[in-house]
Amino acid sequence: MTAVGSTNGGTEVINTRRTETSDIAEITRLTNEATEEVFGRINVTYLLEKANLAVTVCNEKNEVVAHAALVDYPSWNDAIDQADWESWLYKNYDNSTKCTPLNSLFLQLLVAKEEFAVDCTNEIMRAVFNAVPDLHFIFLRAPADVKLAPALQGTFSPMATFPDSAEGDKFSLYVCHRYQHSPQLFIRKARVRDHDDLITIFMRQDDTLTETYGNYFLAELIEAQDEENHAVVGEDNGTAVGFMSVSTEVNLKLLQDCFDLGPFHGLCKPHPDDILSPIPTPEPSVTRVISRQESQRLQSALSQQSRPASSQDSDLKDIVVSEQASQKELQNASNGPTRSRSVSGVSEKGSWNRAASAEQQAADVIQGEDLQPPGTPARAAEKKKDVFRPVYKGELSAFCIQLFCIDEEHETRSLDFLNHVFNLFPDKDFCIITVPQLVPEFLLLQRFVRVVPFTTCTLPHELYVFHRSGLLSTLNVRLAKSTDFPAIEALVKALDLHESMLNSVTVYYEARRDPDGTPIQVFVAEIVDQIVGLSIIRNEEDIEYIRSHYNIEDFIYFNHHQREEHGHLYHFALNPIFKHYTKHFLKEILRLSHKSCLYYSIYPTDEEVQNPYAHSLTSALHYMVPVRPRRQIVYPLEKLGINAPSKRVSKDQISYALYHINRKLTLEPKVTINARIVVVGASDVGISFLETLVFCPHMRFNNITLVSTNGLPDTRLSGLKDGYGFLANSHCFNDKDYTLMSLRSWVNVVVGKMTAIDRTAKYVSLSKTEKVPYDHLVLCTGLQYQVPYPSGADISELVTNREIEDCSNKRYTGKVPSNLFTLHGRQDCQRALNWLQDYFVHNEGNAIVYGNSLDIYTTAETLLSLGITGSRIHLVQPPLASGITCFNNYAVEQAVAEALSEAGVTTYSSCILANWNDGDDPDPIKSASFTTDTKPFKLECADGAEGAAAWILSPLFDTEWKQGPFADGRPSFGLLDDAQQGVFYAGGGHSSMMADAGRISHMQQ
Fold first, then answer.
1. What's the predicted TM-score (pTM) here?
2. Which residues does the annotated region (Disordered) include (predicted)?
3. Which residues of the chain have pLDDT under 70?
């Protein structure tokens, strides 16, 4: 909030924010004849659709006081191609060679209430420069015979044209420089006398360091500087407003053991004895246990065989930027905005003692895969193979940021520190910083690359890396030329889909179109005359299908975008040290291709699904927004005839998850959250929760983990063609829904069953040794079926249900028979189906289906469909807890009972399991005895049968809780202490709300 003065002497408290759609009407009312003279006739709605950045100044009543819209090409561009405005600028205006698409924007509209115009214009310029760190010039192009308003005259200065230029006769160009509104900080060596200025900044943000090391820790740190440890400050008008402490003391072995530093050569200098690849050995069989990096390579390999892809780390494994860039270029490098708070670096003295982590989210690309911790009971036989890790013999080439803090007012100038600290260590190429996972990603980190942690990472920190060459601000994006092919080939040779990329480049060189006539464009990004990025796009020919099947109008006004302005991104590769230029690369692709929207598809990876154009798994996915699918109307096409919708809309094609970026989003940041969110259970509630996180357009979650016995339920199994088969369909999600969500692109999956929770250490146990740490735990296991507890009654004594002990709440801990199945998901159903087909269908014996839910009827239907006669199927129902059946409708119950009777299925009611095999060894089940309200009975298997197939469907919460916030086996929020509020959540049918919030109990391990 800022106070501004008016020309009539009044003041107004204003706030600057990004423009919203609801502002259009008020912005339009602020336009007048003077506005049209300077900017031309403007359609505000259309302009906001195409503007890269739109800023609104509003007062305390949220009334629009001023507005500005900026784009990346000149206004009044009747004779200027937006893809080639640089040559126009250099040809006509003096002192313009420093202006590039990276550091320049053009003001297309500025309106304000007349009495606040001057102050609001200055506030808008300051906000724009702060929002775009690389921006140094804002241009205004207006007719030469038009006089600017006083507010614009005080902000913009005219640029001189060359004598032989005719541009000045028609138009005038004005410029506003960064230094006028948001100057760079002066960075110098820290002095002890800076202590008083700096300590107030530290105290405003966090007093932990003061409490730990005393009131003068900062002065002591400044005094302790030497050749290996430096402290610098950022100064503004003689006052220290920021502080950074850097050191060469780095625990390199710890970092190499915990993080995948391969793309950065292990933070070491190249050495001839480096071991960068394993000795060739016969290809081992792929195990169920694969890490995030392995899953990316596996998915890419599948995609390369003309199969659709999900998402891939297309970042390069080799740093190809020349190290010969001059010191002058580095010193002139553009520094950008950021904010931070104090964080500790990595040193030899630092140590972390935490539980082993599940696979963390990838930095550039997140390609989820089922992760099976070694020793997990569900997959105990499948041990993870040793993964090759490179060995680096060279010297350390990195220094670390130990402490960093900056005043909030100057947070956008955080990057000014980097150029100076790199000059302090001329022999180091990398700057690293570690931050706790609960610390929000402050602005300095937005220029760093988040490093992918290994599955065995024990650090509760995130590692970020910045390369010296990242300071270069000479990134140029252009259409590829035929002479670029060798450089492109060298750039993508380490990528799995490099052949597909090179084929597309060849097609572009030869015809500029695909064989089907679709236009194709290839763009390259280069720095210091070296190609560091590649992107391949095609025209989006299915835009009608996209509009009808996805909520694309959540992000754009569709009617303001022409058909040819929609493009489809197929391949994107950018050297990881220039990751912070990803959005600029995308912005330039839109400008140079005359597009306003780009789309990216993530296809399923089913073997039967083929796609003519394999997508590379793009690291740009982080900067795009997920588009929610739309519910579809099922049209009776034959009945509608000529009234049926277009085939472009109604055609049946492969479903895919859709991602999108447009001009409005190219300069809009996302909030990055590194907190470890662990969701237990792939129930409908769990999937819905994950869906909510994944589809947050302005938030990015880097550490989402799902713990589930069978992983994500998004893989169609061969024998179950229609849903789950045995289990009733909740109709919340189906295979198509999972494809449209593409949860595997964002969620790490740990295959296993949770057995305990340590709320103090904050981890869940999967076995005696395997633990998954969390910062926020969400329990969504749902109601699960488990093995019933036999009452042990002797049916020879003709006992009834009233005479036996109630064992409904007891847990069976004995030997589970091999021919007894508890069905929780399609993997369980598949195993049951396989067993039936191998051992039961063609033999004799009884199938006992035990339970009183809807699933016993769907299971009976499945058994009948397999060819099992009804006389072999026995539906045994335990006593109802409430007297209400699963149908809760007498007519339906009667109809189902008649259908079962006609099929020959025998049903029993109010039955309690007494024993298997008369109390002897239950494996395999050869007989089962039950008590009823009247006379007990026993079901036998035929002598020649392998055994009876028994589905025990008794819904209970199937996780072993000893003590803690659980009542009757269900999590209760009321029993959580204050320290756990906001950390521990539960939802779904297994949870219960408790009124007794006074009791506090802890989980006993």
1. 0.83
2. 275-380
3. 1, 5-7, 9, 77, 280-386, 605-617, 714-724, 941-982, 989-1005
Q: Are the C-beta atoms of 427 and 269 separated by less than 8 Å? A: no
Tokens of 149: 């308003």
CA separation for the pair 938, 915 (Å, rounded): 9
d(CA 108, CA 684): 48
Is there a contact between 297 and 388 (Cβ–Cβ < 8 Å)? no
Q: Which fold has domain 2-180?
A: Aminopeptidase (3.40.630)
Distance CA 959, CA 759 (A): 16
Q: How far is CA 458 from CA 173, 377, 764, 909, in A?
A: 57, 22, 15, 53
Which residue type is seen at 211? E
Instruction: Break the chain into its structural domains and give their ranges.
Output: 2-180, 252-279+311-363+382-471, 476-527+529-668, 675-783+959-1005, 795-956
Measured CA to CA, the distance from residue 206 to residue 341 in angstroms comes to 8
- Phi first, then psi, for residue 975 (nearest 5°) are -95, 5
Distance CA(669)–CA(446), nearest Å, equals 9
Q: Report the distance separating Cα 565 and Cα 596, nearest Å.
A: 5
Beta bridge mates, 310: none
- CATH superfamily entry for domain 795-956: FAD/NAD(P)-binding domain (3.50.50.60)
| Token reading at 977 | 């202490």
| Fold match between domain 2-180 and domain 476-527+529-668 | yes
Residues 6+ apart with CB under 8 A from 385: 284, 287, 289
Sheet-wide strand order for 912-916: 912-916, 927-931, 937-940
Q: How would DSSP label each residue in 813-855?
A: -SPPPTTEE---SHHHHHHHHHHIIIIITTS--PEEEE-SSTH
Q: State how far the Cα of 22 lies from the Cα of 458, in Å rounded to an integer.
A: 48
**If one looks up domain 675-783+959-1005 in CATH, what number appears?**
3.50.50.60
Residue 990's pLDDT is what?
A: 65
In whole angstroms, what is the distance from residue 673 CA to residue 775 CA? 11
Q: How many CA atoms lie within 13 A of 229 on its CB side?
A: 13
Instruction: Judge whether 462 and 703 are in contact, CB under 8 Å.
Output: no
Write out the two tokens for 273: 């004895």
Report the alpha-carbon distance of residue 989 to residue 992 in Å, rounded: 8
* pLDDT digits 0-9 by tens, 92-121: 999 999 999 999 999 999 999 988 899 999
Q: 161 and 193 in contact (C-beta within 8 Å)?
A: no
DSSP for 688-734? HHHHHHHT-TTEEES-EEEEETT--S----TT--STTSSSPP-SS--
How high is the pLDDT of residue 36? 92
Residue 110 three-state SS: strand
Give dist(CA 858, CA 724) in Å, integer. 10
